[in-house]
Amino acid sequence: MSAGIMRTPRSLDLEITSRCNASCRYCYYLNNPDVDYTDLPTERWLTLFDELGRCQVMEVTLQGGEPLLREDFLTLVDGIVANRMRFSILTNGSQLTPEIAMHLKTTGRCNQIQVSLDGSKAAIHESLRGADTFAPALAAIKLLQEIDLPVTVRVTVHPGNISDLPALARLLLDDMGLPCFSTNSTSSLGTSEKYGSEVFLNAADRLKAIHLLADLDSQYPGRIQANAGPLADWRLFNAMEDARQKGQPIPGRGCLVGCGCIFDKMAVRSDGVYVPCVMLPQMVLGEMGQDALADVWVNAAELKCMRERVKVPLASFEECRDCQWQKSCTGNCPGTAFTLTGEINRPCPDSCLKSFVQELADQGLSLWK
Amino acid sequence: MNDKLLKIDLNTRLAVNPTLVLRVEDDDCGLLFDPDNGTVQMLNDTAIEILQRLDGKRTLREILDSLQQVYTEITPEADQQILRLVNQLAEMGAVGVWEEG
Ligand code: SF4
Ligand code: SF4
Ligand code: SF4
After folding, report:
1. ipTM of the complex model
2. Residue A115 forms beta bridges with which residues?
């Protein structure tokens, strides 16, 4: 066994279907040329769940596509439960019925159900997600609240919904009484590439979103979450600037440490291919049924290489050498770095504070309020 | 079924609660995961070594003997240490005597 690497992952993201009834313009999942968008029969997934049970995996996240489009969805959930795992679901909400929700509740194993909602009104939500998607998403959130299942909402921030963020926060947190919601923004993967400025935040949009979300964050302390996107960037950038001003670099940074998941998590595509993360669908590690999960996890060359990234100093990159935030930078997401640069173990240009500050300065703007 | 008032001595044949997941992460650490409530109890290497051997068939005495064959540095106080550990785990419902099936 490799030193310091767990024998098996703690959790997996499972793209159980490639089908979706929506056609969101920023979808990272659909339209990746390297992906085979096929679905596997029930038995193949149930066999995988038995293997995950033997590997002592604790949690899976069911996603797609739209996972609830699978006719055998509840059979798959029962297979997960039988193998002593918990589960989460990422959904657009359109296929959720009271019967499905009740079945999920009776398992007692549901960590959370995340419904996507991008606006406080149909016109805003549907501008990038397509017609007739707003009401079903809202109904799904309400249904999950009514039967007391842990529901969260994911808001993808794009140029068309920035100004609506305060109204959306009011709807979700004040009117609907959700404990919190999370935000991200469009990733450079899949369908989004076709739609350019309609879906991606330019520097000025990003700044506007950052400042709006920072204000909302103060207004609703602890209730707006972010692992990626403008609010996550703001928190990261603030900490980096704070460390720079104090002359005290953030411990554990200064190398490519931006992705912790490669040490406890991996993903499976709808066609059964193992990948490091859903944001790296082109990086094939093996195939379920053919390759043992534990073996892929410990021995796949690509994963071994990615795990080495934590030892790669940012100072070794030309663009970082003279950067004043270098010792507090993490290099961020390898998935996006790979999509944008074709290299996995290098900093992600999308989340580079130095280039963002420069881009803003070129337009006479400043990140710091 | 687990008897909460179980009196544990070195002749007891204990097993890990079958509803829990004993997850061995690497040679030095592991955890007990309860999928019904999501709680996680971190375990050190000694606890893992013992829990992995609690199969409901071997007595604690037999388990100690098997550990002694692997770890030459096991001290005479090991009897008491193992009893303390399994009693704590039994109180948490993590180990006990479980009926077949
Ligand atoms: S983002 Fe989700 S709901 Fe939208 S098209 Fe992609 S998979 Fe479907
Ligand atoms: S140049 Fe960008 S990626 Fe490199 S250390 Fe600075 S902020 Fe980080
Ligand atoms: S590759 Fe990026 S998106 Fe995937 S787990 Fe790592 S940081 Fe997160």
Report:
1. 0.90
2. A91, A153
